[in-house]
Design brief:
elongated; alpha+beta; 5-stranded antiparallel beta sheet; 6 helices; 182 residues
Length: 182
């Protein structure tokens, strides 16, 4: 059973008395097992209660994957960034549990949902903990810079070309005009 294997992987890595595994069921027709994992010594009780209530109130006819639960665990209905993260690595899930986050496992799914999940965590890697702090901070700073450039540079280019087309070489403009005619 995949759920029991995933739970045992977490138990092997987090060997604390305060590590809690709660078994819930969801899906009216499938009656799928859902496991809520957290460290009660580190996780906030309000967060635990809130997630537990949301999981119990989730009325789904079928629950085949952990992604089915994600809309019920979001704080708001609409947002640009997801408040639920996913990982396949047991070490990452255990790291998040030790940070005070909650992990939700669904029977039949290899993915562990991490709650809450922040936008900045997209720039983190498990390898960051295995390297020197200054090197990892530099790499993460480069990731932030690359993200900012990827988001802002195309808009700046379009703006510059729109208002000062003389920045582009004439040969390039002729090729662009010929491509638009064809």
């Amino acid at each position: 059973d995949l759920l029991r294997i995933n739970v045992s992987l977490l138990r092997r890595l987090v060997r604390r008395e305060s590590f809690v595994i709660e078994l819930l069921r969801a899906g009216e027709r499938t009656n799928t097992e859902v496991v809520l994992c957290y460290d009660k010594a580190v996780a906030r009780q309000e967060l635990i209660d809130s997630v537990r209530q949301k999981l119990q109130r989730a009325k789904l006819p079928l629950l085949l994957d952990s992604g089915y639960l994600a809309p019920f665990l979001q704080k708001s209905g609409f947002g640009f960034f997801s408040e639920v993260g996913y990982t396949e690595r047991p070490a990452t899930a255990c790291d998040k549990i030790c940070e005070g986050k909650l992990v939700v496992l669904v029977n039949g799914s290899p993915f562990a949902m991490v709650l809450p999940y922040f936008f900045t965590e997209h720039f983190q890697s498990l390898d960051d903990y295995a390297s020197k702090a200054y090197f990892c901070s530099f790499i993460r700073l480069l990731k932030y810079l690359a993200f900012a450039l990827a988001v802002l540079l195309p808009g700046c280019f379009v703006c510059a070309v729109q208002y000062t087309p003389e920045l582009l070489p004439p040969q390039l403009l002729y090729k662009i005009a010929a491509a638009e005619r064809a």
